[in-house]
Amino acid sequence: MSDTSSSLPQQRQHSTIRAGIAKRHARERRFRAYGIAAICAALTAVAILFGMILYKGVPAFWQANVELEIFFDPEIIKVPERPQPQPGQSPAELEKQQLAWERQVTMVNWNRVIKAAIRKAAPDVEIDTKQALSIIETNGRYELRDMFVNDPGLLGQTVTVNLLASANADNWLKGNIDRNLPDAQQQLSAPARALADRLLEEGTIRFAFAWHLFTNVDSRSAPASAGLAGAFMGSLYMMLVVIVLAVPLGVGSAIYLEEFAPKNRFTDFIEVNINNLAAVPSIVFGLLGAAVFINFFHLPLSAPIVGGLVLTLMTLPTIIIATRSALRAVPPSLRQAALGLGASKTQTVFHHVLPVTYPGVLTATIIGVAQALGETAPLLLIGMNAFVAAVPGTPFEQSTALPVQIFLWQGNENRNFFEARTSAAIIVLLALMLALNAIAIYLRTRLERRK
Amino acid sequence: MMNALREDLTQMNMVVRQLAVDTDLYTLPSTTIRTPDLEPQPVKIKARNVNVFYGEKQAIHDVSIDIPEKAVTAFIGPSGCGKSTFLRCFNRMNDTIEGSRVDGLIELDGRSIIDRSLDVVELRARVGMVFQKPNPFPKSIYENIAYGPRIHGLVRSKADLDEIVERSLRKAGLFDEVKDRLHDTATGLSGGQQQRLCIARAIAVSPEVILMDEPCSALDPIATARVEELIDELRENYTIIIVTHSMQQAARVSQRTAMFHLGNLVEEGPTEKIFTSPEVKRTQDYITGRFG
Amino acid sequence: MNSMLVTLVLLLLLGFAYQTGWSRSSRLAQVEGRLHSKPIYHGALVAIWAIVPALLILGLWALFGTATANTRFRTLTSAVVLASAFGTGAIGLYLARNRISARFRARNEVERIIRYLLIGCSVVAILTTLGIVLSLLGEALRFFTFVSPVDFFFGTVWNPRFSSVGTGSGDFGLLPLLWGTVMIATIAILVALPIGLMTAVYLTQYAKPKTRNIIKPMIEVLAGIPTIVYGFFALVTVGPALAGLGAMFGLDIRATSALTAGIVMGVMIIPFISSLSDDVIRQVPRALRDGSLGLGATESETIRRVILPAALPGIVGAVLLAVSRAIGETMIVVLAAGNSPYLRLNPGEPVSTVTVTIVNQLTGDTDFSSPQSLVAFALGLTLFAMTLVLNIAALFIVRRYREQYE
């Protein structure tokens, strides 16, 4: 290199710089590697989390079903004929008679019917009644009863019926429990395990998609039949409350602060308030709900309406902040044009500014609703963790919610079975949230493209 | 309409450039440049057929120029004419812009600087830069000056560093103004002081060339005069290239001037000649304010 | 059924009032020519005057009436309330209708009412804060009648016993819980800060826009996952993995411990720190970056010595917000921290936190008379105060930072 024109100290300096360059570039590469490592770490966390949930949860969507030839044996089902309407009989009286009859049907030893069917399916397996029945979920007998109540003509006939295998049998067949464990640590007795294996081999037990996960409510006595329907309705009611209350309030508040509010102490105070509320821990909102809605206003415990109110207050700041940023994205020229044509401030905002921000408002709503959908902690404090075995008919009835149901299931004693169940419930919850977020992203990109 | 006009201008420019090549401007031996009132200067930077692209868009068309050592060369022209883009080629600041591409030949002391084998860190230590808006780091005045020597590992002791800081500030004519508050934050200085601080910061690594991209456009007239004075003083030790849209400034501080228009070099020569008897009509029009 | 009927009558009143205002003003317009306001505004105004008083009475009754009304006179009182509600509604309708004239500025009045409504929406935020402060303070003060504040704030033993044993017999020392909270939050920040910050640095300074657009949303997915899912993840996967890892190195790490909860919480906070820092870093003017690069600094030198120091206040703000989130996080610690309220230094041991204890003390209990359940509010007050200070400090710092570069 011909540094003829440079002075001597400059030349010395160049050689110093050149000497350090390799080291500095190495440091640059290291720094870059840290960055990539950090991103990889974050992405790995995402991957492990989703991988684990899917790995554990997906098998739970398929459950063991036992296909049995049920013989409605008149020997066992000794009930009179179903009462029919008699001439001159009042409807109330008929209903009373029918209820009495149904009670009689319930008293029938349906377990014996099932037991007979199992014996027929595997005649050569030596097993006592209790052990044989342990592979069928306990709700099986109610299913048979309901079939009979609906159609008493089944008496004396043989019907093929699909019954759910018990949670323990499902565990055993899926290999969720170590097959080499000694008898004392197994959930099923040795003959019952042999029976389950045998029936699976013969095709009597089959794995089928567990639709009841979506249609049934939670159940403690028959864990294999437990479903999310109740929790789903509870969450739905709460989301409705949030949409009905939080969206108008949030959008109204955002419009005021962004378009009308004068710059003064009061406005500043509201803003600090909103920003702070956005970062207040959710459990504090739960305490607020417990103290104000339950203890002061005596609203019902465990009701979606209370949960909805608490979640409304919690998501309000989110919706306000997101709506404000949508309003801020509207170019001022639009407002000036409308004002210049003689529209009042209110007309400008509601006729010209707000319509432009609809996608933004919708996005804000979805973000808020998604946040509310996944929230658990405040709901525990207003009693939504109660066990509820019914689909709530109104927002005022006792109910649980999807995330709370997950919390309840993960705490169930039947760990082997409910770990998968919980993961399946999480998949349902995440799928709902992903769907919501996908809609939000779609709307946001559409909004940005139009700008 | 505008496009047609632009095309015409480009056409015209091509012809003019061809003429220029035929005159003595480019046939001079390219190791020295003659400028009236000055000794013949060796060439510090030599550029030939330089094209710059931003993505699909071509910002600089086939520019060739020689920059003399230890003199001030001014790039003038209407805004958007590519003078800043061309300036940034000399220390490869265009590298930091996504999708930019430079081809042609640019040599510093006879060595190509477009070639990727030349380390950009080393190049930028030799070719410093002062930007349009004063951009002192949000640190103390002292730390601003010390930044360059520190990262390049030029100092061994605190005393060395103190000396460099003082020398650089003195050269930038700022020392007396700030000597009592060297450890105050630099953002507290006035705009003109900030810009001189940025010049001092560039000087601290002892570059050979200093690029100045409209260094006075954000300053008031008094601060501008101060910076111009400084540029004139620095000429003794440094090769300076200044981009300006003020023709008065170019006339005041530079020995040579290059006029750019629409990404082309229109005319280049001794400043006095460009301003008194330009050879190209477009230069004349620009200087007399017909466009720009 | 009953409420359906009331709603129906209200809707009828609304429609009738609007129609009255609209038709009267339209007829007026035919006689007098131009009115100041369009008929829809007259209609809207009459409707507002008719519906608001009725709604007000019904609302007050719904809020406070059920608590006070005697069951014996329920039908009677509700009849009286309904009659008075609709009566006032009708009066309002009549008065508003009579005000309609050509010069009457109905639009201005409607707009003023709309503005009051919007202010009302904004005030909800203040009311919420007020509600939180008052309810927490009120119940916490009741708690302090059982247990002295000194014993609560400086006590080192947490053992509340059960309310059935007898009131005031347990120990209510906050410190073990606070310690657990602080330890878990610290671990979380130690995990999240380097990863989140370096992610933000890489995405803003090095990554091509295309890469950035893919990776950023992928990491932000972490922010949308409900905390109960993280809790389950910690309990089922991370805890056993850490315990196994500890066993390999001869360390005794429990499956549910401060470490488990802290690490998983750190993962949860990564997107929080990375997107906040991302915003902050991108606000550093490009001129500073150019200035440093123009002096011959490498990119990492520019980032470490110029960009990060310049962005430091904003990053500090982001970290404060992240800490506030970490100490308020509930479900992860409920599931994975082990619920063991003792002062322990070892992060491999189970701990308990303020939030876990709030859940434990209040879940399913609505009888707020024993210190065992009231303590939840004292804990909530402590939590609220801590997060309030952090949030306000963070907001203040970030706002100052924004102003600096605007």
Automatic annotation (TrEMBL), chain A:
Locations of Polar residues compositional bias? 1-16
Show the stretches that span the lipid bilayer.
33-55, 236-257, 277-299, 305-327, 348-373, 424-443
CDD domains hit by this protein: TM_PBP2 (cd06261)
For the ABC transmembrane type-1 domain, which residue ranges apply?
232-440
GO BP: any one term: phosphate ion transmembrane transport
Query: Residues annotated as region Disordered?
Result: 1-20
Q: SUPFAM superfamilies annotated for this entry?
A: MetI-like
Q: Which GO terms describe its molecular function?
A: phosphate transmembrane transporter activity
InterPro entries from the entry?
Answer: DUF3333, MetI-like, MetI-like_sf, Phosphate_PstA
Q: How does it sit in the membrane?
A: Multi-pass membrane protein
The UniProt keywords, alphabetically, are:
Cell membrane, Membrane, Transmembrane, Transmembrane helix, Transport
Keyword Magnesium attached: no
Q: Which NCBIfam families match?
A: 3a0107s02c
PANTHER family from the UniProt entry: PHOSPHATE TRANSPORT SYSTEM PERMEASE PROTEIN PSTA (PTHR43470:SF5), PHOSPHATE TRANSPORT SYSTEM PERMEASE PROTEIN PSTA-RELATED (PTHR43470)
Name of the protein? Phosphate transport system permease protein PstA
Name the gene behind this protein: pstA
From TrEMBL, chain B:
Q: Which CDD domains match?
A: ABC_PstB_phosphate_transporter (cd03260)
Its signal peptide is none
**One MF term from GO for this chain?**
ATP hydrolysis activity
Q: Which UniProt keywords apply?
A: ATP-binding, Nucleotide-binding, Phosphate transport, Transport
Q: Which PROSITE patterns match?
A: ABC_TRANSPORTER_1 (PS00211), ABC_TRANSPORTER_2 (PS50893)
- SMART domains named among the record's database cross-references: AAA
Some GO term, biological process aspect, for this entry: which one?
A: phosphate ion transmembrane transport
Q: Name one Pfam family in it.
A: ABC_tran
What InterPro entries does the database record attribute to this sequence? AAA+_ATPase, ABC_transporter-like_ATP-bd, ABC_transporter-like_CS, P-loop_NTPase, PstB-like
Which domain of life does the protein's organism represent? Bacteria
Cellular component, GO, one term: membrane
Q: Where is the ABC transporter domain?
A: 45-287
Family the entry assigns: Belongs to the ABC transporter superfamily.
The record's section on PANTHER family has:
ABC TRANSPORTER I FAMILY MEMBER 17
What this protein is called in its record is Phosphate import ATP-binding protein PstB
Can you name the source organism? Nitratireductor aestuarii
Encoding gene (name): pstB
Automatic annotation (TrEMBL), chain C:
Q: How does it sit in the membrane?
A: Multi-pass membrane protein
Q: Which UniProt keywords apply?
A: Cell inner membrane, Cell membrane, Membrane, Phosphate transport, Transmembrane, Transmembrane helix, Transport
Give this protein's Gene Ontology molecular function annotations. Answer: phosphate transmembrane transporter activity
Record Pfam families:
BPD_transp_1 (PF00528), DUF3708 (PF12501)
Q: What is its main location?
A: membrane
| Biological-process GO terms, alphabetical | phosphate ion transport
- Does the record carry Cell inner membrane as a key word? yes
Which cellular compartments is it found in?
Cell inner membrane; Cell membrane
- Which Gene3D superfamilies does this chain map to? MetI-like
- Where do the TM regions start and end? 41-64, 76-96, 116-134, 178-203, 224-249, 255-276, 306-327, 374-398
Q: Which residues form the ABC transmembrane type-1 domain?
A: 178-394
The entry's function note states: Part of the binding-protein-dependent transport system for phosphate; probably responsible for the translocation of the substrate across the membrane.
Give the family this protein belongs to, as stated in its UniProt record: Belongs to the binding-protein-dependent transport system permease family. CysTW subfamily.
Q: What is this protein called?
A: Phosphate transport system permease protein
Originating species: Nitratireductor aestuarii
Annotated gene: pstC
